[in-house]
Specification:
Number of strands: 10
Number of helices: 6
Strand content: 15-25%
Low-confidence stretches: 4-19
Distance between the termini: 30 Å
Helix content: 40-55%
Strand order of the largest sheet: 3-2-1-5-8
Largest sheet: 5 strands, mixed
Oligomer: single chain
Shape: elongated
């Protein structure tokens, strides 16, 4: 798992992003975002595995179509064959797909089992979809709850989020969903009005939010940074303006944030951002000293 996550961070570096930014959409992106959880690593592996079947099948069918068009066109084959049955061919085209489907089904079921068999949770958070923002409730000793709305461009300076690379337009929010790194988070997803969907690509998480119903999913982020997702259900006119931002921090930073957020979420977020920036500057200074 460590090697896979290291590869994911290397992919981020190749895209010009830093671990502090973690994962977000980039221009001309054609694949998945770098994985931040073991489940997402398994999803990426399963995608690569299925391509070993899809690509040869597609090329084989294309070759057959070209062969048939050339070999059996009217000018080259004026007297068509009257053959209507071939036992060997029928056995092959029946058993072949069965074998392929079995080869796809077994790892697929293993992945589904991993997705829906969560380990014991360290934290439980309820995410509620509204038109058009998310609300979060931390089921801790001192309950913390807040709303998370898309960051307006006019509010960037006041929020201290003027860096568009770290807080991209249409994805940044005023209050991030904060979780500790390396801890299992049980996520209860519901909606207060219409259907929504909580989707975080880097975590391999996508769960429908249904009014009057609690759906459950989980994740365990293995790398610190900011991760972005969006509501993935057509929930109305502002569906495109309902982002999800998850900030993964160290356990110490999370504990300090959680204690402060019980009294003032916005102040807790400002203190957290300041602590992260201070740590980043310390790392930069240490790196320069070594050079």
């Amino acid at each position: 798992m460590t090697n896979k996550l290291s590869a994911g961070l290397a992919a981020l570096a190749s895209l010009g992003a830093s671990p502090a930014l973690a994962a977000q959409p980039v221009d001309w992106q054609m694949g998945f975002q770098p994985a931040a959880t073991e489940i997402m690593n398994q999803i990426r592996s399963f995608e690569a595995y299925t391509l070993w079947f899809i690509v040869p099948i597609t090329l084989f069918v294309l070759a057959l179509l070209v062969y048939v068009m050339v070999k059996f066109r009217a000018s080259a084959n004026p007297t068509p064959s009257k053959t209507s049955h071939n036992s060997l061919i029928e056995v092959i085209w029946t058993l072949g797909p069965v074998v392929i489907l079995l080869a796809l089904a077994i790892p697929s079921f293993n992945l589904l089992t991993a997705q829906y068999s969560p380990p014991e949770a360290d934290y439980t958070v309820k995410a509620t979809g509204y038109q058009w923002y998310w609300g979060y409730e931390y089921q801790t000793e001192n309950e913390v709850s807040f709303d998370s709305l898309m960051l307006q461009e006019a509010d960037r300076a006041d929020a201290g989020k003027e860096d568009v690379a770290a807080y991209p337009r249409l994805l940044a929010v005023d209050n991030e969903f904060v979780v500790p790194v390396g801890k299992t988070v049980r996520l209860l997803v519901t909606a207060a009005d219409v259907l929504h969907a909580f989707a975080m690509p880097a975590f391999g998480v996508k769960m429908d939010a249904v009014p009057g119903r609690l759906n459950e999913t989980w994740f365990k982020a293995e790398a610190e940074g900011m991760y972005y997702g969006q509501c993935s259900e057509l929930c109305g006119k502002d569906h495109a303006y309902m982002p999800i931002a998850v900030r993964v921090v160290s356990q110490e930073q999370f504990d300090a944030w959680l204690a402060a957020a019980a009294d003032d979420v916005e102040a807790a977020n400002r203190n957290l951002v300041a602590a992260i920036e201070t740590d980043a500057k310390s790392v930069d200074v240490a790196a320069n000293d070594q050079n």
